[in-house]
Prior knowledge:
By secondary structure, the chain is mostly helical.
Amino acid sequence: MPIVEVDDLVVAVQRMTAPDRQPMLHYWDTHPDAGNLPVSRIAELQIAVAEVLRPALDAVIGNHLETETPVVAEDDHLLREPDKGEQRTRRRSAPATATGWPPGQANTGSR
């Protein structure tokens, strides 16, 4: 099964945008000392980046659902809860569990 490294999607979207237009997508590159922030702040920022990235990732997931092409998306930019539009799309294709994963396909964190 193909694997999508979401970091590759981040790099592609960053290349197509400018830091002044999408500051959260470029946060880590424009704040080189951000790794020294408290862990809780780093987690908040990572979630904020993931939220901004969500439309691009939803497009990729939606395309795979529409074409019925299996794929595994892997990365720390994945949010636990799908947004409402993606959740509706997923329900049409496969019933989702409470975690948003189709039954029998829970995210185990392994490849």
